[in-house]
Write a structure and sequence with these properties.
This protein has about 150 residues and is an alpha+beta fold. The protein is built from 1 helix and 8 strands.
């Protein structure tokens, strides 16, 4: 197999951390599966982007399409809740989905991407401070009631 489809978020990776409401740029290109570097594949006329916003179902809605090969078929997307799962399907000039048969007969021309929401972590000082306050309150309370 010489090429597989890959969806990119902001041109970096197929998985990215972006806050809710942020605008990300989706792109598509073929990559070499051995090196993960961009490579040539079948000619592409357009790319359709689909999104799944419900992790419990396998239902996809059309997000949009791009015919701009010079921008790697760029499409803007505003990050929404529930870690959207995005599929990018390349089409040839006749409007047929491009198919590259992969392992188990899967279409490896379809690219996928996931936008993850960053989860803020509490600072260590806040955790240690709150733990110390709880221990102090348990140590202080019995003395107060024994007087």
């Amino acid at each position: 197999m010489s090429a597989v489809g890959e969806a990119f978020i902001d041109g970096l990776s197929s998985t990215a951390f972006s806050p809710l409401g942020a605008m990300v740029n989706l792109t598509f290109q073929f990559v070499d599966p051995a090196t993960d570097l961009p490579t040539t594949g079948p000619p592409i006329a357009s790319v359709e982007y689909l999104v799944n916003l419900d992790p419990d179902n396998d239902l996809f809605s059309i997000l949009g399409a791009s015919m701009d090969a010079s921008s790697h078929f760029s499409l803007s997307f505003t990050v929404v809740p529930f870690e959207p799962f995005i599929k990018s399907i390349p089409f040839d000039s006749s409007g047929n989905a491009i198919v590259i048969t992969g392992v188990d007969g899967q279409n490896v021309a379809v690219g996928v991407a996931v936008v993850l929401e960053p989860v803020p972590e509490p600072s260590t000082i806040a955790l240690v401070g709150s733990g110390g306050a709880i221990i102090f309150s348990f140590a202080w309370c019995p003395r107060r009631y024994n007087r």
